[in-house]
Structure formats: C-alpha cells, structure tokens
Amino acid sequence: MASEQKQGRSPELRKDWVTNRWVIFSPARAKRPSDYKSKSPATTTNTTTADQIQDGCPFCLGHEHLCAPEIFRVPTSSDPDWKIRVIENLYPALDRTLNDPIAVAPNPNLNGVEVLGGFGFHDVVIETPFHSLQLLDLSSQEISEVLLAYKYRILQLAAHSSIHYVQVFKNHGASAGASLSHSHSQIIGLPIVPPNVSARVDSMKQYFNETGKCSVCEIQVKELLIDESTHFISIVPFAATFPFEIWIIPRDHSSHFHQLDEAEAVDLGGLLKLMLRKMASQLNNPPFNFMIHTSPLRVTNPQLPYIHWFLQIIPQLTVVAGFEMATGCYINPVFPEDAAKVLREVPNPE
Predict the structure, then answer these.
(1) Where is the active site (predicted)?
(2) Would 207 disulfide with which of 42, 51, 157, 215, CB 3.0-4.6 Å?
C-alpha cells in the first residue's frame, strides 16, 4: 500500500530556509522508505570477537609512534592508557607551519583571482584506543568526551586571529571518505569563511530580517521528529537534501557549538548514539558523514540571534550525479515525513 500511495504523490520542490537550497522530492524514483538499505555497508564491528588492537593501525593503543605529533589527549596526563587523542593530520590539507595568510599579488594570467597562502590547521580526533569499537559502540559519557575534545580544540584554534571558521566532520566507511577504519573524526581550521557557510548565514539572516525569528528555532517538528532529549531534538529536515538525513538541533537558541557545557555534551552524546544506532539498524550500517554546522568565529553580536548551530548526519545511500553538481539542486526520492516515521518507529537499540 505504501508504494501505491507514493505512485499517487506528486513531486515537490521545497526550499530549505537554513541552507538556502532547493530540493526536488521525486517519489517516482523511490522504493518504499522502509526498503532503503545500504548496498555497501561500512565495516561491521563485533566487540566480542574482533581484535582490540590491529597490527599496523597507527590509531590503535601502543602505536602512537606511527602518528603525526599529538596536540592533546584525554585524560590530559601522560598516562599511556589514553581514551581520546587529538593529533596533527599526517597528510594535511593546509599547512600550520606557514605564516599567517596574506593575500598574494594577483597573477595577471588568472584574471585577478585572489590567492592566499595555504595556512591553516588539519587535525584528527582518535575517538577510541581500540580498533574494534565505533562511535555508536561508546557510551553516552564517552561520546560526550569526544564532543568536548572538539570544543577544546575549537577554542584553541579560535585563539589564532587568522582562523575564521572551524569545521568538525566525521567520515565513516570507505565510500564516505574514510581512509582508515579505526574510528576517528577530523577538524580543519580555515583562514576563510567557506561559501556554504556564508550562504547558510546569509539565508538565516534573510529569514530573520523577514520574520524577526531564527529559522532553526522555528522548524515545525511534528511530522519530522525522530526523537528528543532534555537539550536537543533530532529530526529529518523539511527539505532534506539526502534520504534519511538527520539533524540534531539544540532546543535553546545557541550560535556556537563550542559553548556546549558538560551536561549538554552528555545529553547530545546520548541522542547522537541513538541516531547512529537507529540508522545502522534500519539502513544496514551505511557509510555516513556527519558535520557540525556552527557559527564563524568572528561573528558580531548582532548576528548571534539568527545563527543556530546543528549537527547533520548523512547516510550514503544515493549518488550525487551530474544534475546535482551542475545546479546545486538535489533530488531526494524519500519525503522527509516518511523517513522520519521510519526512523521514529525503529525500536531503540539496546
């Protein structure tokens, strides 16, 4: 019956007032939402039989000498039994040893295109010392410690006046961009505000100017809600770019992720764990990406009322193809209300 309902449902174009992006919802291209499963699941873990330490993995306990220099660890002592390590990326996109960026004189052969020196920071957060564990295997308290490690590193990077935006992200599974299977995430400190971030901030500003309200605070969650906790809600956004995309949003207006306190971190850790486990259970443990969308570091006080941070999770179930790359307009075969219902009804994994 679900497939018959979908055949009778017309396509829609929806605008996301947070990202200023149009999305096409095309049910004719869809299976039933409950049929979506990853065709290339990420590596399945089994903590009862898998080796805790894997030979040759630089992120495993005891292999610290194989890594780039350490920035800090949790606990912060020199105890070899660490829980989290933040290290320099061995193959960084940007170079922290360069001078702070200054504009390079335009090359006349490049029609005046502006060029900056490639100064910036690219770090890795090793989320657990044990190879067999993934983020969803950790306790809420352990995940909160990973989140607080992000916060601490952002605050360190914010002390550099030339760093204007810090992007925290996680790639899980080879097809999502992870080069190592050991659970880790990454942090990049940029000397610019990236265009997607500027577009998001401008879209939020436009909504605020027109309504006097924050576009994220105003999200209507009735049919989009998956679950909720004391400080956060999880939803499938109204104009979800990807099938089964999830946003975790602070209930109270908050502009900067790095203002997260310890109680909020534990609460967020629990809801993030639940979403990852629901997604793994329903979608066959798909490769995924998650990103923390926060404020630029140098925003002014008048900007704070309309910038609201959130965490986005994208399971890798579809392929971005020519139309999306050409237009920036994505085609999603699953209506968000349907995806939210499917995820809401997945029994909470133990």
Answers:
(1) 184
(2) 215
